[in-house]
Amino acid sequence: MSTVLEFRKGAATAAPSEQLGLADVLSPSQVATFLACPAKWCFKYLLDLKEPKTSSLAVGLAVHAPITQALEWKRLNGMDVEAGAVDELFEQAWAEETDQTEFRDDEEPGQLHDQARAMVRKYMTEAAPYLKPAAVELPIAGEIGGVRIRGRLDILEEDGCVTEIKTAARNPGDEMTTDHRAQLATYCLLCPKASGKARRDTITKTKVVQIVPQPIEIGPADVAYLEAIYPQAQEAMRDGVFYPRRDSTMCSRKYCAFWRDCENEYGGVVKGGGR
Q: How far apart are CA 19 and CA 16, in angstroms?
């Protein structure tokens, strides 16, 4: 398998990278990954390296799966799923997601399990009853700024509101990050039934679990940003310059499964300790 350095050397003598089909189709998560750390984008999307599952990713997926499954059942049947059934869905998801999870030395899987289950129960009790899903995990595709984009939105509500359900280590506060807003804006632009209203529901991994809704309305400034950032990100990906962002708060052994590849390729030490 080619390394990052081998790719760079090959790109210097080969035909233009555009001919390789590099970054022909993007997604909001791809672009967010690239902007946060070009090296991580390279490891994940270009070199297609196996991504060991971190506990952070496993918890997020194990929380997300039973919630969206329950909401799809609600969409089809017009009623909420009973708490016991949701617990069963969670246990199935947890077993599947943690089967190959790489837990750090300082992490206790049992505690993470209980925390994730509490997060699911919190959302299903306090938020899900008020949702009226018209579509769940809806694939979307289209073009923005001349770049082909695809993705999958979590919930399209009956009133056209695009709702994304995420987990986070802490309360995100009132202000939404640029990449989260860009994801919602992308889905609103590409989904024909979207109203332009969107919301990100964050479930916190805190001792006392919280649900933090962040509603927004997509406007001309959001569209202008997407039309600028997608083609520029695509061009930068094709330039083949992939450096690590070691100053990022997400650059750690806990949050990035490619930390070993990063240390082997670029040297230095990725923070976080443990294995």
A: 6
Q: What's 203's domain CATH number? A: 3.90.320.10
Instruction: Name the pTM for this structure.
Output: 0.86
**Cβ atoms within 10 Å of 150's Cβ, excluding its own:** 15
Q: What is the pLDDT of residues 154-180, one digit of tens each?
A: 999 999 999 999 999 899 988 899 999
Domain span at residue 194 reads 132-224
* Beta carbons within 8 Å of 147's beta carbon, 6+ residues apart: 26, 230, 231, 234
Separation of alpha carbons 57 and 183, rounded Å: 18
In this prediction, residue 274 carries a pLDDT of 52
Domain membership flag for residue 176 = yes
Q: How many Cβ atoms are within 10 Å of 112's Cβ, its own excluded?
A: 20
Domain count, the chain: 1
Cβ neighbours around 103 below 10 Å, total: 16
In the chain, the percentage of residues whose pLDDT exceeds 90 is: 78
What is the helix (H) or strand (E) element at residue 200, kind and residue range? strand 197-204
Residue 109 lies in a domain: no
Q: What share of the chain is helix, strand, coil (3-state, %, to 5)?
A: 50, 20, 35
Say if 137 falls within a structural domain.
yes
How is residue 127 annotated by DSSP?
A: T
Q: How confident is the model at residue 4, as a pLDDT?
A: 40
Reported as a single tens digit per residue, the pLDDT across 125-156 is: 999 999 999 999 999 999 999 999 999 999 99
Please check whether residue 94 lies inside any domain of the structure: no
